[in-house]
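[09:14] KT: can someone run the structure on this one? pasting the chain below
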Amino acid sequence: MRKIFLILFILTLEIFAGTRMCDSGEVIKLLKDDNKGSRHQRFILKLANDKTLLIAHNIDLAPKIEILQKGDIVKFCGEFEPNKKGGVVHWTHHDPRGKHIGGWLEHNKRKYE
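[09:31] RB: done, structure tokens below
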């Protein structure tokens, strides 16, 4: 039964891959910035449903949240991509080419887009 549930859960996540997701969560882990290629600020949020998400925020296209700390609440809107650990939200910024709906992060009532 567990295997069936897991397979259905994974299939459900695949259906939602690349879809817009807007929510908020608590920062539970700060990660080093990814400086290979386009630079990204990275951190992990825990949502109200206890799921975790990696936020990958392009800091070449949008400002970095400089004073982000563990325990802070961050609102976000971006594209969701599932993975084995929960998923990644990216495109949390404007798209200079206009192919993606612009996303954003909000921290302490300031929007980063």
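[09:33] KT: thanks! Helices lie at 2-15.
[09:34] RB: yep, looked fine to me
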